[in-house]
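Thread: "does anyone have the structure for this chain?"

Original post by V.I.:
We have the sequence but no experimental structure in hand. Need at least a predicted one for the grant figures.
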Amino acid sequence: MQEEKKYIIEIATSDFATTQSAVAGGADRIELCANLAEGGTTPSYGHIKRCREMFDVLLFPIIRPRGGDFLYTKDEYEIMVTDVKLCKQSGCDGIVIGLLNMDGTVDVARTSELIEIAYPMEVTFHRAFDRCKDPFAAMEELIGIGCQRILTSGQKPTVSEGLDLLIELNKKADGRIIIMPGSGLRKDNIKLIAEKTGCTEFHSSLRNKTKSAMQFFHPAFEYSEESYMNNSIPPEEVKQLRMSLP
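Reply from O.Q.:
Generated one for you, tokens below.
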């Protein structure tokens, strides 16, 4: 009898409320972020601490001191080192990082250092990978320095567009590193992505907006989404994502 596949659903959250909703929906792992509109930046220590205290779920904060590119200065790198240590002290299960060199290769030296500092936490290399000039060389380097998984959309804006590369990456990974498809992953395409790639871990943000509970809306900002709309993740959408898997 063929063993049933164990799928892992990771949800990227942007605050405490969306984390609470993702956990309620049955997420296996949380990529804890701030500023998802910028691709995610490191959440505050208070944010990490509260989520760790409240949720019995795998917690992986992103370690990214700013939006923009993935080429970091010495000062930015030192900030990342401090944040990794804080995550470790806070009892997080892993971290999510991504550092590149100017030429589009993985910054192996500093990535390796962060992996060593993070141990025994797991390390995911995020979609900085999709900006590498040679994805297969980058994958081998990440395997060599002990990275556990790669979050990737197959070097395209969405997983549907990057499907062919995702298939090749997972084939060449051959169990040595986890290839985790993410970006544009929804209930209507996750089954196809799973069947075509053979991947078993999946990442989605399921980003939605909900109206603020504020009763007073200042007339000058009445139609300001920034002022009166909050990020949300419907728990039911997390459940539907899992139910859509083969």
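V.I.: this helps a lot. The longest strand covers residues 8-13.
O.Q.: and The chain has a mean pLDDT of 96.
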